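1st attempt posting a full record on here, be nice pls
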Amino acid sequence: MVVGTVQTLRVSNTDGRKVYAHNEEMEPHFSAVSPQTPGLEHTEKGKIKFSFANLMHLHQPLVIMDEAHKAGSKLSQEVYERINPTALIEFTATPKGFNNLLHSVTAQELKDEEMIKMPVVLDEAETWQGAVNSAILKRAELQEHAERDREAYIRPIVLFQAQKKGEEVTVEVLKQHLIDNENIDPSKIAVATGAQRELDGINLFKPDCPIEYVITIEALKEGWDCSFAYVFCSVANIRSSTDAEQLLGRVLRMPYAQKRKAKALNKSYAKLVSKRFMDAAHSLRDKLIDMGFEESEAEDNIEAEQLGLDDGLFRPQPRPTPTMKVAIQASQEEASKMNTAVPSKVQVTFDESGKSHVEVKGFLKPEEADTLISYAPESLKPQLQQSINEHHAKYQQEIPPSQKGETFTLPRLMAYVQGEMVFGDPDILMEQHEWSLADHPARLEASEFSIVDTTNTFEIDLDGNRVTIGSGDAAEQLTMNVEVDDWTPNSLVQWLDRKIRTPWLSQAELLAWLSDVVTYLTRDRELSLSQLMRCKFILARKLSEKIQGFRQAEREKVYQANLFGPDAHIEVSFDQGFTFFDEMYAGVPKYHGTYRFKKHFMGPDAVPVFDSKKVNGEEEQCAFMIDSHPRVKYWTRNVSRHPNSFSLPTSTDKFYPDFVALLDDNRLLVVEYKGKDRTPEENRDSREKNLIGQQWAKASDGKAVFVMTTIEKGDPKEVRVAIDSILHQ
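the predicted structure (as C-alpha cells):
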C-alpha cells in the first residue's frame, strides 16, 4: 500500500521529481521487462527508466482518490495514464460533472443517522465586526449547554474565515480585533493558514486544550475535521454559494455521532456578513442542494438566528421596508450619475425603452434627498422632489427619528481644575494631580510577601545497572541562601525597575522607592538577597500591585475632591457631549424578540440586543416600560463600551447607563437598570454609579434626569413608578 498526494505526480515536466527519476536500485523490478513495453518512460539512451512511476504502471495499482472533484483536469488524466490503474475509486463530498457517480449518500441520510448537525442556523450582520461579535456570543451560549451535558465532553469552537492579503479583514486584522476589541485570550486563538500552522500537533479534543477560536482563509477546506466546530463566521460579504463552501463541511459534523439532549447542540451555526438576509439564505440553500439535499429539504434545514427566543417559529416577521418607485425620462448617462447619489438606499435602472426607474428603499434623510435631487437632470427635479415628499408623507408614522435626520446629544460631565474646564474623567483629573511614590511606605510586610522553603531534593544515581532515587542530603537544601557574585541589591533594583516601570512615574522616583523596599526586606526583615533574587518575579508582581493600589487610592481621592468635594465645581457640556445618530450602532447585533418597540430612536428593527440572554428578561421588560411611557418621545439602548455611547466616570472605570431617551419636554432621561441583588443600598458599585448619575443630572440644570431602577418584585411597572417619581420632583 502506498499513500501519497496527487501533487507529487501531477506535473507536466517530470524532470526533477524523484517519483519519475531513474534509480539503479530498482533495476531488479525491470529485469524481465521488454524495452518495447508501451506506456513506460525511457531515458535519453532509450532504455526503460527504473522509476517508481514506471513500476506503478507495470503493476496497474488500484487507485483510491480522495477529494476527486479536484482531479478532473487534462493533466490529471495524463497522470492516470502514467500510472495505469486497474481501477480508479473516487471519493468526494462535492462531485463534479466529470466524476462517474456510482453511489451517493445524501446529506439527509447523514442527518437521519445523527451524523451531522442540522439544521444550519443562519444569522447575518451588516458589518464584519457584528458577525464576529455574534459568533462569540453564540459560542458562549453553546458552552453553557455543553457544560450541562454530562454524556460527553464538548468544547464548542468558532471557525473564522478571514480575507486574503490585501483585503480589509486579513488574518492579522481579525486576530488583533479578537484580542483588542473582544477581549479574547490569545491562547484561545489558533491560526491555520498555509504559512501559519498553529494547529499542528494539537489535539483539539483534549479537555485541557484551550483553543476556542480558529482563524483560517482556505487552509481548512479539506483534511481538517473537528466535530467541536459549531460556529462558522465568514467576514467576507456573502454573494454566492461558493462563498459559503467551507461552512458545510467544517461545522456540520455531529460530536460523537449522536443527538445531544440540548437542542442547540444538534444544530450548526453560520454568522455571515450580508446586506440582505435572503442573499445569504439562498447562498446556503444552493450549497445544500449541491451536497445532495432536495430543494425542499434544503429550505427546511436553514433557520434564521433567533436572539432571545427558544423557538423562532412564532417570532413576528419584520415588516417589509417601504419602497418608493418612480419612472422618469433620463438618459443612461444621467441615470448612471443618479445611481451614485445614495448607493445604500437608491437604485436607478435604465431600460431599453429609454425610461429610467428610481427605486428608494426606506426613507431618505433631508441631506440624502438633497443629494439625490442635485444629481437629477434639471427638468426632473420637481417630479422627483414631489415623489419623495409623497412617499415620506404616506409613511410618516413609520419613519424613525434618526432616519429623518434627527440627532440628540447627552452632555458630558466636566470639572474645573486649576481654572481650566476638563473632562470629569479620573484619568484626565490625574494629569492635573501631583502625587509622589515617596509619600507611600516602601515596605512589604510578611502578610504581603513571604518566602517559605518547601523544596524537596532528590538524587538520581546508578546502583550497578539500576537507576535509584533517594532523598538528598539536608545540607544541599540550604543552597537557597548561597550568595551569587552577580546578585547585588542594585542589580535587583534595576531589574525590578525594568519589570514594573509605568509611564506615570519617573524613573528616578521609582528607583529610589524600590531601593528603599529592598533595603527594608534585607535589613529589617532579614531576607537574604539570594532568596529575593530567586523569587524576583513574585516580588515584582507584589510591588506592582502595591503601586497600583497607591495610584488607585490617589484616583479615588482626586475623583471625590473634584466631583463631590466641597470645593468641586462641575458643569455639563453639550458642545463636547455624546451625540446619538442614525446607524451609530451599525455593527452591533440586533434584538429579534417578541416585542416590537414603537419609539426606538433608530426604528424597531435596529434595537441593539440586550445583555441578558433570558427570554423576556428584565432588561427587555425595562425597555418595554420606557417605550410605552407617555412622556418618552424616543429612546435607545446605550451599548456598553461602544465608542459612540454615553458614559459617566467612576473612580475605577467608565459607567455606561443602559438606556437614554428624549422626553416630550426635551429633557433627557438616562435609565440604569440593576437587578434586585445589585441595588445601591446593597452594592458599592451600584451606589457609586447612582451617585455620579445624580451628580450629572444636578449639573445639567434641569436639562436631564437620571433614574436607577430595579424590578424587585418581578413587576415591570416598578420601572414606570421610578421614572414617574423622578419626573415629578
